[in-house]
Amino acid sequence: MTNIIIAIDGYSSTGKGTFAMEIARRLGILYLDSGALYRTVTLYALQNGEIEWNGAILDRRLQEDIILGKIDISVMSKADGTMRVFLGDEDVSGRIRELEVARNVSAIATLPFVRNFVDEQLHRLGSKGCVMDGRDIGTAVFPNADLKIFMTADAEIRAQRRVLQMEQAGQHPSFEEVLKNVQERDYIDSHRAMNPLRKADDAIVLDNSHMTVEEQMVWLDGILRERFNIGIL
Ligand code: DC
Question: How far is the CA of 27 from the centre of ligand 1 (A)?
């Protein structure tokens, strides 16, 4: 069953990407990181002077560029489950993780015309089968996905994971600051007017507060065997 669509949504820093990539690698199917597309649109807007120094977005210009087809996004999926994203000919996979993009992406992701544009791209890329992670995949992008998982974990544990990641990248954040940021992002994601983060009625909840990636694979293996008669262990 290679054309299966698995939708993974959840709060930030719950390890959606790691979980989704590992599933894609084990099933040999495409991994699509929907957040990367929002980040790529944000990078385009920054590169084209469409976000001002104070964060104000020149949304008419951005919308016009989208209508004119100027934002050319493509992705390359690799056998190890990772995904590279391109803006035109340029591989922007690294640049979309930079702080300037992170600072502006939430605002860009609230714009309805951006959400419609990204949704079209996600359908184009993923409708033949994929594991896709994001905030609204099971509710809005693929409401008929074969399997929907909603990921959560205690905010303190997610903050602790972020602190560790940042320390590994040579930064020294305070735990309180990171926790506050995690809670703020939870709020923004769940209170956005268009397609906010919420659990789809038919999604299965995965709370991985106290689970390793391998334990999550064992959990999923049970579900995949029962529902689709396929295993990933
Ligand atoms: O998962 P991430 O941090 O790369 O996501 C970047 C931003 O995009 C974040 O502000 C949430 C938003 N996003 C969204 O609104 N809908 C999605 N399906 C995926 C991401």
Answer: 24
